[in-house]
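User: Predict the complex with fe (iii) ion.
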Amino acid sequence: MLKIGCHLSSSKGFLAMAETAEKIGGTTFQFFTRNPRGAKAKALDVEDVNRFLERAGQLGIGPIVAHAPYTLNACGAEERVREFALETMADDLARMEYLPGNYYNFHPGSHVKQGAETGIRLIAETLNAVLKPEQHTTVLLETMAGKGSEVGRSFEELREILDRVELSDHMGVCLDTCHVWDGGYDIAGHLDEVLEEFDRVIGLSRLKAVHLNDSQNPLGARKDRHAKIGEGCIGAEALVRVVNHPALRDLPFVLETPNELDGYAREIAFFRERCR
Ligand code: FE
Ligand code: FE
Ligand code: ZN
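Assistant: Here is the predicted structure with fe (iii) ion placed in the model:
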């Protein structure tokens, strides 16, 4: 069964997200661990989490994807910036232990003129500082569009980060269809070849989740502007092939398209109707 959902607001808590997901036909969802711009996270409501776990079990919802604030930069040039990333990730991962078996996705970072090599080393250092042998969360590197000095546009860069992480059993990759397209991987015309390349460079066993988005920009644009399904340059047909691909079809798919809930409900139904 297709596991699909969308990014949801976490402001009303976990149980509310499960109920919203159900209402729009979702069997997974993604949420920000905290306000993407702000630093402070609300104290975790353990009772809400426990009610969520029970309800999600009944509804067949999960695994779910927590998304780190996108302002984090584990490879920032200033130590203060890197320290904030480290502390936030450590705190998020400690909270995620209340929701074992799920994913924590983050943008690897922007090297801001330090060069990709330094960026990769700093990201791996951060991960080596926050990962714990006993944790129950898999941390995902998101494939990036390559705008500015983003690290993680190429599969090779992601592989280099993974190679430097000691507890790499706790690591995986989340493939964002808009980002890889903007990064120059032609998933519309050559999906099989792109996935073969992913397998050769990173290994498909590392791939744990997919962000399902169309892109406002052409192949290789390095812009990162998401579009609604079928309203962008990738196109609906190509995204239906993504969802049905044997190497991907069992993964959780998360829509991050510019939609309100009714739009997400329509996109979820669209893929369910076309899922083989
Ligand atoms: Fe993201
Ligand atoms: Fe994404
Ligand atoms: Zn994006």
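The pocket of fe (iii) ion (ligand 2) is lined by residues 142, 176, 211, 256 (CB under 6 Å).
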